[in-house]
Every structure is written in C-alpha cells, then in structure tokens.
Write a structure and sequence with these properties.
- A hairpin with a 4-residue loop joins strand 25 and strand 26 (402-407).
- This protein is 1% helix and 35% strand.
- Mean pLDDT is 87; it is low at 1-44.
- Strands 1-26-25-24 form a 4-stranded antiparallel sheet, with no helix packed on it. It has a 4-stranded antiparallel sheet with strand order 2-3-4-5, with no helix packed on it. Strands 6-7-8-9 form a 4-stranded antiparallel sheet.
- The protein has a single domain, classed as Neuraminidase (6 Propeller), CATH 2.120.10.30.
- The protein has one helix at residues 130-133; strands at 49-53, 64-69, 77-81, 85-89, 104-108, 121-126, 135-141, 145-153, 161-173, 184-186, 192-196, 218-222, 250-253, 260-263, 270-274, 280-286, 297-298, 301-302, 320-323, 331-336, 349-353, 359-364, 369-376, 382-387, 393-397, 402-407.
- The longest helix is centred in the N-terminal third of the chain and has 4 residues, at 130-133.
- It has 409 residues and is mostly beta strands.
- It is built from 1 helix and 26 strands.
C-alpha cells in the first residue's frame, strides 16, 4: 500500500520552475521571503546534514506516519503506524543487531480504523498531564469520518493502552477519502489543535477552505481538559471566531491538506506544511484568525492557475513555497530544531518533500526568511519528522527506516 495521502491531486508533477528552489547554499534576501536571488553574505549558515539509521537494532515498522514522545521523563518513543497501531520502544536499549528488537504494541485499534490511500491512523498527541492522568489522543479515519478520540494507558507503567477506554472527542464527516489532514498536537496553551484538510477530491469542490461554517480546511483549537461523554470538549474563550457566524472551533482556515504541523517548543510558533494541488507546495506559520488562501490561492498563486489578477487581500502568504519540479510531489511539514547535538542548527525549521527526498532548512525572523538551504536529498518517501524529549529530530520513511540528523563529514 502506498502513502497517497501526501501526494498532490495531479496525474503528474506540474511544470518546473518555482519561487524558492532550495538549492544548496541558497540564501534568501531580506527584501522578500519568496525570492531566489542569493545574498553575497548569508545572514546565518546552514550546512549539509547526513542522515543515519537511528536505531539499526530495531525491527522495522513499515507505514510509519508519526513519531513523538510522552513528556513523562521515560524517554520512550512512540511510532504511529497507518494500519492502526502505535508502537513504543526505549531508544537507549540496544538489542542484538543480528536479532533486532521488536517494539512494544502500545495501542492496537485496527478493528475500528479504515486504512487505504490517505486514510488510517494518522496522529497522536499526549496530554500535557499524561504522566499523572495517562491520557492521550489519536486521529484516525473510518469509512466516512475523521475521528479524534481519547484513550488511557493501563497500569503497565505506560507500556500499554486500553483499547476499550476510547472516548470520542470529535467526529467529522469526510465527503471524499483524501485530504484528511492527520496531525493533532497540544499547543503551549494546553489546548488541542487539529489540522483538517478540505474534504478531498480535487480543487476543493465544496469550497471548504473558505467556508467558516465547516470544520474542513481549517486548524481547529479545542479544550479537552474536562472531556466527558456529555461534553467531549469546550471552546477556548479567545478563539478568533467564537462570536462570529462560524464554527467556533476554527482557529485558522484556508488550508488544503495540513498533513504535518508542529509547535516550536521555544517560541510556541505553529508551523504547517500545507500540501498543494498540482503546482505549488507551501509552508506557513499560522496566526489566530488567519486565512491561508485555499482555494482562492495555491500558495501565493491564483487558483485555478489560469485565473489572472485574483484578489489576495486579507490572505496570509506562505513563508516559503516551492514548485512541483521533477520528482517533487508533496511537502512534509517538519519541526524547528531545538536539540543539543547540533547547536549550529538551533532555531532552524526543517521540512522535506515526500517524493524527491529533499530536506531543507530555513531561518525565519518573524517577518521574512533570512536563509534557506538544501541539507540532504538522499532519502525518499519521507512521511514525517519527530522529536524526542530532548528535542533531537528524527525523520521517518514509509519503508520502515527512522533516520537521525548528523553532521556532514
């Protein structure tokens, strides 16, 4: 089974040419965050990286779509498999490389997850108080819905979760089987953020991206701190559309398919890789109430592509965009590096393309991109980035490899 969920809707990549081409050692001038003209002296350096097998002793887990930790001091890592299972392991325990080490099954809900194409178990977020309450949240698809549900780990020291403990928090009808989004994450405000795509098909036929009356095509923000069957979530009082004729869960909108997003653990900024249609992929830093353009725009370009002089007033432009040139097909939103082992990479946002394997890094000062560089292009079918408790970054590939960032020799 291929991971179609991250691919654009075209039958082939669009014609080459792009605003940001991410060539090695390309530096973005301060005049425009989307320019390709290099500066004579880069503001800050980004050097090539090597990607090595992070846990060569670990048994391969195919169809990985997410990696995270529980912030409980255990150091354990949790890997989400699209098939409907979550696996966990201790990264410091090295088994016999000849034998491998099988990870633990933390949760198995294959009996309720519809898998295929873009559907499956897609997201995992641990409660900020997980160490004391054992609660975590998942995002999965059924035949016709996206489901966000809460589970609780059992008395096994957090090594297993009880499939029977499910409390459904949210169920959203999906009119088509693609563009489900997938990521869920707790922000620094302890609210749960849920990224939902536009409902699928191609070109957003239901105009979900610009419709504040639907939860599709939006970033949602809800309070699950006192979730119950009677009241599965509450609306934060400062959500931007709470007093408007809109769904009050919406925090930002105009998204096509926010497959992977993350919070900068230092600044709290919310970074999103929003998968494009046929021509452009984009990276955004979301703001409360922001409209990110879909389906009026694909990245910073009019949509459909033949439309001229579309009105971009009131729309938030991407931080970076790139064209579907050559083997490129879909942006994989990443993370801001805050780990201890690569201090020169501190504060750089990392992201990739699923098909081309290009891994890019950029620096953003809150107004514009100040540096942008190709760091590696040796891995294909990248599905997600992940962080451990210390902030070290890993990359997942769909064939079962977990990679660790390392200095280029």
């Amino acid at each position: 089974m291929g991971l179609a969920l991250i691919a654009g809707c075209g039958s082939a990549p669009a014609e080459p040419g792009g605003v940001v081409t991410a060539e090695a050692d390309t530096s973005i001038p301060t005049s425009s965050p989307l320019s390709t003209e290099p500066e004579a002296e880069p503001i800050s350096g980004l050097e090539p990286l090597e990607l090595g097998a992070a846990f060569p002793w670990l048994e391969r887990m195919k169809n990985m779509v997410h990696l995270t930790h529980a912030s409980d001091g255990s150091g354990r890592l949790y890997v989400v498999l699209q098939e409907g299972r979550i696996m966990s392991f201790d990264p410091t325990t090295e088994g016999d490389p000849a034998e491998g080490t099988e990870p633990d099954v933390f949760l198995d809900i294959r009996d309720r997850v519809r898998v295929g194409g873009e559907r499956g178990l897609l997201g995992l977020a641990f409660d900020p108080e997980y160490a004391s309450n054992g609660r975590f949240y998942v995002n999965y698809t059924t035949q016709s819905h996206t489901v966000v549900a809460r589970y609780t780990s059992d008395a096994s020291g957090g090594r297993r979760a009880d499939p029977g403990s499910e409390l459904v928090i949210m169920r959203v009808l999906q009119p088509f089987p693609n563009h489900n989004g997938g990521t869920i994450a707790f922000g620094p405000d302890a609210y749960l953020y849920i990224g939902l795509g536009d409902g699928g098909s191609g070109g957003d036929p239901l105009n979900s991206g610009q419709d504040l009356g639907t939860l599709l095509g939006a970033m949602l923000r809800i309070d699950v701190s006192e979730a119950s069957e009677e009241r599965p979530y509450a609306i934060p009082a400062d959500n931007p559309f709470i007093n408007d004729d809109a769904r009050p869960e919406i925090w930002a909108y105009g998204l096509r398919n926010p497959w992977r997003f993350s919070f900068d653990r230092e600044t709290g900024d919310l970074w999103v890789g929003d998968v494009g249609q046929n021509n452009w992929e984009e990276v955004d830093v979301l703001q409360a109430g922001g409209n990110y353009g879909w389906n009026l725009m694909e990245a910073s370009h009019c949509f459909p592509s033949g439309v001229q002089d579309c009105d971009g007033e009131g729309l938030e432009p991407p931080i970076v965009e790139y064209s579907l040139d050559g083997p490129r097909c879909s942006v994989i939103g990443g993370v801001v590096y805050r780990g201890p082992s690569l201090p020169w990479l501190e504060g750089a946002y990392l992201y990739a393309d699923y098909c081309s394997g290009e891994l890019w890094g950029l620096r953003y000062d809150g107004v514009q991109v100040t540096h942008h560089a190709l760091l590696n292009d040796s891995v294909r079918r990248i599905t997600a980035f992940g962080e451990d408790e210390d902030g070290e970054v890993y990359m997942l590939s769909f064939d079962g490899n977990i990679y660790r960032l390392a200095e280029s020799k």
